[in-house]
Specification:
heterodimer, A: alpha/beta, eleven-stranded mixed β-sheet, 19 strands, 25% helix, globular, B: alpha/beta, 16 helices, 18 strands, 30% helix
Chain lengths: 426, 574
C-alpha cells in the first residue's frame, strides 16, 4: 500500500526533503509565510548578482530587550508578577566598510499591572520616584534626558499605551482585575509592553539620527523589520513625531515631515509573514540575475511580527539563493525570502502626491522611480554578503550589518540577576 | 631602593582596548584577557607590552597570547558568506574581527594579588611605564640587556626602550649565568652575547669593577676582529648601510640597526668613542691570525693540565670511560708530578705506558712503584686513547716539555679576551675550555688584594659539547664551576642549539635565559622552556636580532631586540 502511495506521489513530481529536516513542531521558520494576501505584483526587477550602487546603506538600526520577572505581589490572595525590563535601541554607522557604533539609547523600566490591582485594593499607591510611561506619550524624550544608568521609569501594564484599535483588534488590551488571576495574561502584557516601548524607542532614535545627521541624497538608514511598524507609535515617542500620522484615519498627517522622515529609510524584514498570492514565484527564478517581484499594498496587512503597509514598496528577494539546500532545516522556499520595505518618499520627488491612497509609482523601464528603486535594491543585493551566523533561517534572510548591530546592543543588556538585584526585594 | 608610592599621572594616551570579565575568560591576579579595537595595525603582537589604567592603579603586562575571532562559529559560514566561496569578493561591510589578547602581569602599583577591579582601559606602554617596570632594579645594578619596541617606527631611536638586567642576578651573588638557545645561523646567539659583553663592560666601568670577559671563538669569526670598529658614527652608518644593502638586502633592517645603536649609545654603550680592550689568545699557524691584533700564543704541556682536563680531552662526551682507565690516568699524573727525572711530558707518558705493556707487572712495579699493578687491557686502552689524542691535538699540545704557555688568570686583561677554538680538534677544544675555566676559578678564589680582576664572564657557544645532558666525566669541572659561580663572581654565558641537551644542573643554575629563533620541536619541551609560556609559539619565527629574554627579577619574559655587532658589518673591501 505504501509503495502505491509513493508511486502516486512520484507521479505528482514529489521530491524528498533533506533527511535532517526537523518536525513541524520544532521548525525554526514556522512563523514565516503564514499570512497569504491577494495582491498583484506592480513590477518585477531582474538585477545582477554582483552589483554596485550609488546608494549608501549607511546606518543600521535595531533594538533589543530583556524583560525579567522581579517578584510576585500578593493582593487579595492573588499572586501578581511585576517585571523589570531593559530596553536598548542603537544605530551603527558603516564608514569605509567598517561598522562603528553611532548611537545608543537605553531604558530600565519597572512593569506593574497597577490599575487592575487597584480595582482589588484601591489603597495601592504608585511606585515612588520613578517617571511614568503612559498614554500621554513623550516617552522617548523622557528616555533621552536620563543620563544615568539606573531604574528610572515605570509603566502600568494593565492599561494599554496605544489607543489604536484596528478591525476590532487592539495592539494592547486592558487587563482587568479579574484577569490578574491568569498570570499568563500578565506575562503576555509585559512582553507586549516591551515590544511597544522598543518600537517607540526605535522611532525616537530614527528621528534623532535623521534630525542630527546631514544625510546625503543617497544615504539610507536600514531598520530591522517593517519600515512603517514603529510609526504606529509616533504619538508616544514625542510631540514632534506625534503629528506625523493621523491616528483616527491611519493616514499621513504631516506630508512634508513624513517625506523628510522616510526619504532616507528602508526596512529589512527577515521574518516575512505576509505572502502575496500572485507573482511571488518570480522570486524563485533560476536565471543569471536575481528577480525581485515588487508589490504595493493598498492597506496595512499584519502578520506575526510583520506588517506590510500602504505607501511602501515591498520587494521580495531571495538574498542568498546560492545557499538554498545548504541549510537543511530551512526547506520551505518562502522561508528563504527577505523583504525590503521601501517607503515611497525614498523613490519619489518631494512634490509628488505619494501620500494619496491611489498613488502608483512609475516603474516603467528608464523612469526616475524605477531607477531610484533599482539603485536601492542593488545596494540591498550588494549587502547580501557576508552572512551573519545566527539561526539557520536568519542566515538566509538577515543582513550582516543588522545582526552585528544586534550583537552590539545585546552585549549591553544587563544579565538577569543584575536586573533583579536592582530592586532587592529581600 | 624603595619605589615611591605615588603613581605618575597617566598621560592621555588613547586606549586600544579594555579588560575582559567573562565566564569563558575570567581575570586572574597574574594574567587576564583584554579585547582590542577592531582596527588593523594596532601594533600589538605576542611579546608587546601594554599598560592598563585603573583608578590610582596601573598594571603593565606582556602579551602572552592572542586570539582573533568573530561571531561566526563555523568555517562553512565563512565560505558561504563570501559569495559562496568567492575569494575575489570585497563585501560592502568588512566583517568584524574580535581581537583578544592575554596579558601576564609584569608590574602592578600598588602591588595587589588580585585581578583588575574593573574593565579598565588598555593602551600601549610609554617610556614612563617602562621606567616603572625597571625601577625595582637600582640604577647602580642595571646592566642593559636589550630593547623593547614601544613605538611604531623602528628607525626612530625613541621607539626602543631599554630592558635592564640586575647585575646581582647576572653576575652574582644572587644568581648567575645566562643560557642562550637558538638555531645556528639564525638565532644570533653569539651576537647577543657580544652585545651583552659590551653592556657588562659599561656597567663595570661605571661601578669600578674589574671585569674580564672571556669569549671562546668556537667557529668562524664570531668573536674575531672585535678590534676593528668604525672610528666615528658616520663611518658606522656607512658600514651599516652597505651591510644592509649588500649582505642583508633590506634597507629597513639597516635603519632599525642604526636606531638600536643610537639608542644603545644614548645608554652609554658607545664602542665607537670608547672601544673595548680586546686581547686575543690563539695557537701557532692559526689561519685566522689576520683577524687578530697582537695575539698571545698558547700551548699546554702535560703538567699544565689537571686530571679532569686530560680525561675530558681523551674521551668523547658520549663515552663512559672505564673506571680503571680513569684511575690509571689519575695515579700516573700524580706520579708524574713528583717525578722530575726524566722530565714529565706527553711523550714520556706514551713511553711509560708502552713500557708497562711490554713488561711483566712485577717489573713495572719495580720501575714505577707508585702506580701499582694494572691490567694490561687497561694500560692498552689508555695508551690508545693518548696516542689518538696526540695524533690529532697538534695545535696546542706541547709533547716534549712538562709546561708550555697556557692561558693563565694573570694573562687575562680587563675587557674582552678572545680565545680561539676555531679549527682545533674537538679534544683540544674540550681540553682548552676546561683548563681555562679551572684557571679562572682558581684565580677568583684568591684574596681580592691578590688578584687583578673582580669578576670574570665566560662566553661559550656549543655548550652542549662541554656540559652534555648525559653523564660524562668531561663535564664535572664545568658543573662544579657553574655551581659555585655566583660566589666566585664567575659567570657563564653559554649558548647552544638545544637547551634540552645541556646538563640539568648547568641549565638550572642559569638564572637568565635567552631564546632566539628556535626549532619548533625543541621549543615544545615544556620541561625546558615552560618559563616562556605561550611566547614559545613565536620562538620559531623570531627575526635576527630578536630574542625572548627571561630574567628572574622580571615576572615574565620580554621580547627584546639588540643591534647587530658593528665589527660584523665592516665592508668586505675595507
Amino acid at each position: 500500500m505504501q509503495a502505491e502511495l509513493a508511486e502516486y506521489l512520484r507521479s505528482l513530481g514529489a521530491v524528498p526533503v533533506p533527511s535532517d529536516v526537523p518536525s513541524e513542531e520544532a521548525s525554526p521558520d514556522f512563523s514565516t509565510g503564514v499570512t497569504p494576501y491577494s495582491v498583484e505584483p506592480l513590477a518585477e526587477l531582474c538585477l545582477p548578482e554582483v552589483t554596485d550602487s550609488e546608494v549608501n546603506l549607511r546606518f543600521f538600526l535595531d533594538g533589543v530587550q530583556r524583560t525579567v520577572p522581579l517578584g510576585l505581589l500578593s493582593v487579595k490572595n492573588l499572586s501578581i508578577p511585576v517585571y523589570i525590563a531593559h530596553l536598548i535601541v542603537g544605530v551603527m554607522e558603516r564608514k569605509d566598510r567598517v561598522l562603528t557604533p553611532f548611537m545608543l539609547r537605553e531604558a530600565l523600566v519597572f512593569y506593574i499591572p497597577l490599575e487592575a490591582m487597584r480595582n482589588l485594593d484601591p489603597s495601592i499607591g504608585e511606585p515612588p520616584y520613578l517617571h511614568k510611561f503612559d498614554q500621554r506619550g513623550n516617552i522617548y524624550d523622557a528616555i533621552r534626558t536620563v543620563r544615568m544608568r539606573g531604574l528610572s521609569f515605570w509603566t502600568d501594564i494593565s492599561i494599554p499605551l496605544s489607543l489604536r484599535e484596528k478591525r476590532g483588534k487592539k495592539e494592547e488590551t486592558i487587563l482587568g482585575s479579574s484577569e490578574l488571576s491568569a498570570i499568563g495574561a500578565v506575562r503576555c502584557a509585559a512582553r507586549t509592553r516591551s515590544k511597544v516601548l522598543l518600537r517607540v524607542m526605535e522611532l525616537g532614535v530614527l528621528w534623532e539620527v535623521i534630525s542630527n545627521v546631514m544625510l546625503g541624497k543617497n544615504d539610507f538608514i536600514v531598520i530591522d523589520g517593517p519600515v512603517f511598524l514603529p510609526l504606529k507609535y509616533a504619538r508616544l515617542a514625542n510631540n514632534r513625531l506625534a503629528t506625523l500620522i493621523d491616528f483616527s484615519w491611519e493616514k499621513i498627517a504631516d506630508v512634508n515631515k513624513a517625506y523628510s522622515f522616510y526619504s532616507h529609510v528602508i526596512g529589512a524584514v527577515k521574518n516575512v509573514s505576509v505572502i502575496p498570492t500572485q507573482g511571488l514565484t518570480l522570486a524563485f527564478s533560476q536565471g543569471p540575475g536575481i528577480t525581485i517581484p515588487i508589490y504595493l499594498f493598498s492597506e496595512t496587512v499584519e502578520g506575526a511580527d510583520d506588517e506590510v503597509s500602504s505607501h511602501t514598496i515591498s520587494a521580495f528577494i531571495r538574498l542568498r539563493r546560492e545557499l538554498s539546500g545548504e541549510i537543511s532545516p530551512i526547506w520551505s522556499p518562502t522561508s528563504e525570502l527577505s523583504r525590503i520595505d521601501i517607503p515611497l518618499p525614498a523613490i519619489v520627488d518631494e512634490n509628488e502626491p505619494w501620500y494619496i491612497p491611489d498613488f502608483r509609482p512609475d516603474l516603467s523601464v528608464g523612469s526616475h522611480h524605477r531607477q531610484r528603486l533599482e539603485a536601492i535594491l542593488r545596494a540591498a543585493i550588494r549587502d547580501r554578503w557576508p552572512i551573519p551566523e545566527t539561526t539557520p533561517h536568519r542566515m538566509l534572510t538577515e543582513y550582516y550589518c543588522i545582526a552585528e548591530t544586534e550583537n552590539w546592543l545585546r552585549s549591553h543588556l544587563l544579565p538577569e540577576q543584575e536586573l533583579r538585584s536592582m530592586v532587592p526585594i529581600r | 631602593m624603595q619605589p615611591p608610592n605615588t603613581l605618575p599621572e597617566v598621560p592621555p594616551y588613547p586606549y586600544i582596548g579594555r579588560v575582559i570579565f567573562s565566564q569563558d575568560r575570567p581575570a586572574k591576579p597574574n594574567e587576564f584577557w583584554c579585547w582590542l579595537r577592531d582596527a588593523p595595525n594596532l601594533n600589538v603582537q605576542l611579546g608587546s607590552l601594554l599598560s592598563v589604567d585603573g583608578e590610582n592603579e596601573r598594571i603593565i603586562g606582556i602579551v602572552v597570547d592572542m586570539e582573533y575571532s568573530s561571531t561566526v562559529q563555523r568555517a562553512t559560514t565563512e565560505f558561504y558568506g563570501s559569495s559562496y566561496g568567492d575569494p575575489q569578493l570585497q563585501p560592502a561591510t568588512r566583517p568584524t574581527i574580535i581581537r583578544l589578547c592575554k596579558l601576564r602581569v609584569m608590574f602592578r602599583r600598588p602591588f595587589l594579588s588580585t585581578p583588575p577591579e574593573g574593565r579598565w582601559g588598555v593602551r600601549h606602554v610609554n617610556q614612563e611605564d617602562l621606567d616603572l617596570i625597571m625601577q625595582h632594579i637600582p640604577k647602580e645594578r642595571r646592566i642593559l640587556g636589550g630593547f623593547v619596541r614601544v613605538g611604531v617606527n623602528e628607525d626612530d631611536p625613541r621607539s626602543w626602550h631599554p630592558v635592564y638586567l640586575h647585575a646581582d642576578f647576572l653576575l652574582g651573588p644572587e644568581g648567575a649565568h645566562m643560557n642562550i638557545t637558538g638555531v645556528t645561523g639564525l638565532a644570533t646567539k653569539t651576537s647577543y652575547a657580544l652585545f651583552l659583553s659590551y653592556c657588562i663592560m659599561k656597567w663595570a666601568e661605571e661601578n669600578s669593577q674589574r671585569v674580564a670577559i672571556v669569549l671562546f671563538n668556537v667557529k668562524r669569526w664570531d668573536f674575531l676582529a672585535l678590534h676593528r670598529l668604525p672610528r666615528k658614527w658616520e663611518d658606522a652608518e656607512q658600514w651599516i648601510d652597505s651591510w644592509a644593502r649588500d649582505r642583508i638586502g633590506s634597507r629597513v633592517i639597516g635603519e632599525r640597526v642604526k636606531a638600536l645603536w643610537k639608542r644603545a649609545m644614548e645608554h652609554g654603550i658607545d664602542i665607537i668613542s670608547s672601544p673595548p680592550n680586546v686581547k686575543y689568545f690563539t695557537y701557532q699557524e692559526d689561519s685566522d691570525l689576520s683577524f687578530m691584533s697582537r695575539p698571545e700564543y698558547i700551548k699546554y704541556g702535560i703538567l699544565d693540565l689537571s686530571k679532569d682536563e686530560l680525561v675530558a680531552a681523551l674521551y668523547r662526551p658520549d663515552e663512559e670511560p672505564a673506571e680503571q682507565q680513569i684511575n690509571l690516568i689519575s695515579v700516573y699524573l700524580d706520579f708524574l708530578r713528583d717525578s722530575a727525572r726524566p722530565p714529565p711530558s706527553f711523550n714520556r707518558m706514551i713511553n711509560d705506558l708502552n713500557f708497562l705493556l711490554t713488561k711483566k707487572s712485577i717489573t713495572v712495579t719495580k720501575s714505577i712503584p707508585e702506580i701499582g699493578q694494572w691490567d694490561e687491557r687497561t694500560i692498552g686502552a689508555v695508551r690508545r686513547r693518548l696516542s689518538g689524542f696526540l695524533s690529532r691535538a697538534t695545535h696546542i699540545i706541547e709533547r716534549d716539555h712538562p709546561n708550555a704557555h697556557p692561558v693563565t688568570f694573570g694573562s687575562l686583561k680587563e675587557g674582552l679576551n678572545v680565545i680561539q677554538l676555531n679549527r682545533l680538534d674537538d679534544r683540544e677544544k674540550r681540553l682548552l675550555v676546561n683548563a681555562v675555566i679551572r684557571e679562572i676559578s682558581k684565580g677568583l678564589e684568591l684574596e681580592s688584594s691578590q688578584r687583578h680582576l673582580d669578576r670574570v664572564v665566560i662566553v661559550i657557544d656549543e655548550l652542549n659539547k662541554y656540559a652534555p645532558k648525559r653523564w660524562s666525566p668531561i663535564k664535572e669541572q664545568i658543573v662544579d664551576v657553574v655551581a659555585r659561580g655566583r660566589d666566585l663572581r664567575l659567570s657563564l654565558i653559554g649558548a647552544q642549539q638545544f637547551a634540552s641537551e645541556i646538563d640539568g644542573e648547568v641549565l638550572g643554575n642559569s638564572s637568565t635565559r635567552v631564546v632566539g629563533r628556535s626549532d619548533p620541536n625543541e621549543i615544545r619541551d615544556v620541561g625546558v622552556y615552560g618559563y616562556l609560556g605561550t611566547l614559545r609559539d613565536i620562538a620559531p619565527y623570531l627575526e635576527k636580532g630578536q630574542m625572548i629574554l627571561y630574567h628572574p627579577v622580571h615576572p615574565a619574559p620580554f621580547l627584546i631586540w639588540f643591534p647587530t655587532p658593528l665589527h660584523e658589518m665592516k665592508p668586505l673591501t675595507s
